[in-house]
Amino acid sequence: MNSIEVRQDFPILNQEVNGHPLVYLDSAATSQKPRAVIEVLKRYYEADNSNVHRGVHTLGSRATEAYELAREKVARFINAPSPEQVIFTRGTTESLNMIAYGYARLQLKAGDEIVLSPSEHHSNLIPWQQVAKVTGATLKYLPLQEDGTLTLEDVRQTVTPATKIVALAHVSNVLGTIHPIKEIAAIAHAAGALMVVDGAQSVPHMPVDVRDLDVDFLAFSGHKMCGPTGVGVLYGKRKWLEAMEPTYFGGEMIDIVELYDSTWKDIPWKFEGGTPIIAGAIGLGAAVDYLTKVGMENIQNHDMRLATYAMERLSELSDLTVYGPKPGKTRGGLVTFNLGQVHAHDVSTVLDAEGIAVRAGHHCAQPLMRMLGVISTVRASFYLYNTEADVDALVHGLLSAKEFFQHAIG
Ligand code: PLP
């Protein structure tokens, strides 16, 4: 994979910001879109736009075919046993809420346990808090090692026969830690619990095979994997999806509607009430085609290589605290750090003046920030279009920030 060639596929990258070539290091927040995806969206709106699963006119059939084809593409991408197990949602947050509301809230009771890690993104934490409040179930947290990793021994100690759900991010959006989901799923299953995986930061960056991992549910977002905003996926094992209740009731998700009761369509359509995310799903299908062509293993190796290079280069800077797995340990394609006591927003503002886009803040992981003893961090995240030169620009920008804030660093 040649990231310099790949860059040419992303028109947005070809611009200056604040008088400098744009260096986009915020793909963990949202990725940029290749021309192939933009073109598919344009073509859909110019030629095929119509509602799906309704009319019998030609445009309606074309739109329906394209929408359902996108489902097949996504199913193949994650090796789902069937396209019906892929539900189009608005994103990871909605997918996780659907599991919490449509499944867990109805199945769990007082005395049951939900096991999480303290490094979860709020979207894989707050829905479970809500489930616990309504059902009387208890939340249990796995202990995190200092570098943000989990040990299987701790998982074995924490998961008990009372555990009904283990819900974890595959890759931490703050620390870049990659959790051993396959092994954790085996522990969860041995205890009779379901494995729910937040794949927001893994599905875009590495091959994810739901059958190999043997996960019960997987949630991810299209916009972080070269697709449009507003579309995501909920994958589930057939038996759990069939047991799960819809979250949205109304048009399109019904079989028969009577005055006082109604029945639902089969999966996946019972979960897609109202006009679905048609263009978004078709755009996600195009993104999956694009990523498959580049090769997910190539992308994974590339992102990890850049993260390793960034760790090396950042270690040259004094006054920088880098969080997460130490150099030499496996990490996803991101690095998170702080410069002395300087607020992450201030560091990010100086970087922006050099055209460098990074994320600064609590990254929707306030409990983790508290564990790290900080209120915010700076995160640089890499994707297939980033190069070593982008990391060099980041280091240059950080040297400027160090100079600018010398008085605060001391
Ligand atoms: N989970 C993780 C690990 C994330 O990084 C994110 C987004 O940053 C989400 C969940 C939420 O994704 P979305 O905002 O697309 O629903």
Structural notes for this entry:
The protein is α/β, with parallel strands linked by helices. It folds into two domains: 257 residues, Type I PLP-dependent aspartate aminotransferase-like (Major domain) (Aspartate Aminotransferase, domain 2), CATH 3.40.640.10; 111 residues, Aspartate Aminotransferase, domain 1 (Alpha-Beta Complex), CATH 3.90.1150.10. The protein contains 15 helices and 17 strands. The strands form five sheets. Strands 4-10-9-8-7-5-6 form a seven-stranded mixed sheet, with helices on both faces. Strand 1 and strand 2 form a beta hairpin. The longest helix is centred in the first third of the chain and has 20 residues. The site of pyridoxal-5'-phosphate has 12 residues, from helix 4.
SSE layout and pairing:
Blueprint: H1 3-7, E1 16-17, E2 20-21, E3 23-24, H2 35-48, H3 58-77, E4 86-89, H4 92-107, E5 113-116, H5 126-135, E6 138-141, H6 152-158, E7 163-169, H7 181-190, E8 194-198, H8 210-213, E9 217-221, E10 232-236, H9 238-243, E11 254-257, E12 262-264, H10 278-294, H11 296-314, E13 320-323, E14 334-339, H12 344-353, E15 356-357, E16 359-361, H13 366-372, E17 377-381, H14 388-404, H15 406-409
Parallel strand pairs: 3-15, 5-6, 5-7, 7-8, 8-9
Antiparallel strand pairs: 1-2, 4-10, 9-10, 11-12, 13-14, 14-17, 16-17
Helix pairs in contact: 2-10, 3-10, 4-5, 11-14, 12-14
Pyridoxal-5'-phosphate binds at residues 91-93, 121, 123-124, 169, 173, 198, 200-201, 221.
